[in-house]
Amino acid sequence: MVGRLSRLRSYTRTNFRFDVIAGITVALVALPLALGFGETSGAGPASGLVTAIVAGVIAGVLGGSRYQISGPTGAMTVVLVPLIAQFGVSALVPIGVIAGAAIVLMGILRAGNLLEKIPWSVMEGFTLGIAIIIALQQIPLVFDVPRGEGGETLNNAWSSLTYTVSHPLHGVSIAIAVLTVALKMAWPHLMRRLRVRIQIPASAAALVLVSALVVGLGLNVRTIGEIPSSELFQVATTWPTIPLPSLLWAALIVAFLGALESLLSARVGDSMVHRRDHELPVPFNPHRELIGQGIATGAASLMGGMPATGAIARTSVNIRAGARTRVAAVTHSAALLVFVLALSSVVSVIPIAVLGGILLGTSWRIANPRSIMESLRTTWPERAGFVVTALAVVALDLVWGIVIGAVVHALLTRLLPGHSTHA
Q1: 185 near 364, Cβ under 8 Å?
Q2: Could you give the angle at which helices 74-87 and 398-415 cross, rounded to 10 degrees?
Q3: For the chain, which residues score pLDDT lower than 70?
Q4: Of 243, 252, 289, 287, which Cα lies nearest the Cα of 269?
Q5: CA–centroid distance for 116 within its chain
Q6: CA pair distance 219, 63, nearest whole angstrom
């Protein structure tokens, strides 16, 4: 007991300030992303907020990483769009609960090392494919047109573009999205030029400034609208009727992706801490991470949210902002809750096109052109694995993309043993 009190006093003196600042900073980044991913998935902005709050605190406390920030992500949105289109929003409850239980089972069975089996080039192609799909999913938001029927990304994108061409353009909506992307991309350079030392996340700055401009000019555009408090944290009492094979397959895909992305994010987080502190961090526990993420996904889905994963972008912001312990993740969820409850009227006037612009900027950063060029300069097995995975993810789905990419990488590694390297 004395030892625990001593550690608590030590923590309060050295780490609390860093964790609180980091948590609030991440919340500013998470707010527009949660709203955007909720809207894009078809579940609604409220669902995205619930996911960020509930999954953020549960995975932060129970997971295996000190620095991981969890919530709705672009990769999970890519999977959820066709599921919601096919089965409806209510299907997220059984899918999320079953997927969460499966992820917990993976952790109990100590399957946390599965990430090490996937070639790094395949993971890079997987990431690029996700970035492309996120960008395509923003077409209805940017052009203010109806979303295409069904859940296939390419078909929906083509349907939305066809509708756009055959109808008058919503110039104001497009201009808002373009301005949002430009501000989001230019914001870090602007802060450096102005020598501003306070960290103001680019997404949050673009959200606030462009939304304020739209309101100030009185522009008539589609907005998020009011999110009644009654829509937040609704515990599901009924489950929709879904054929069991379809339900289990959907849950399996969600579980696989949730586990994979969470482990990848935690691993990237550890490497960032190593670079920041110039010493090896306490490594994340992959098995505990799966258990925490599984519980978080099940809880968020039951309370009106959606399946969650560890978020690489938010985890990196958390680390760069100085996070030291799990308190940062808890602070992030608490700050989001305060934002939602205290600023609900402000959130309601955010234009949908602003969210589309923010997610377009996010997809660009996820794609990372420098990383693409590096992947294309490697050996033939690595290059082929990267390109094939990206194309398969966009044309088929995330799971088949990884499977096909890994098979191509393995075959070329055997056929061209002198041209292969380890990622």
Answers
A1: yes
A2: 130
A3: 1-14, 149-151, 229-231, 418-423
A4: 289
A5: 21
A6: 44
3-state secondary structure of 353: helix
Q: Which residue has the tokens 């096909």?
A: 404
Integer Cα distance of 97 and 25 in angstroms: 30
Cα 30 from Cα 335, distance rounded (Å): 10
- The answer for residues whose C-beta is within 8 angstroms of residue 393's C-beta and 6 or more apart is 125, 126, 128, 129, 130, 132, 133, 401, 402
Question: Using one digit for the tens of pLDDT, what is the confidence trace for 238-250?
Answer: 778 889 999 999 9
Question: What type of residue is 125?
Answer: G
The whole-model pTM stands at 0.84
Q: What type of residue sits at position 305? A: G
**Residue 130 near residue 398 (C-beta atoms within 8 A):** yes
As given in the structure block, the two tokens for residue 86 are 């096919």
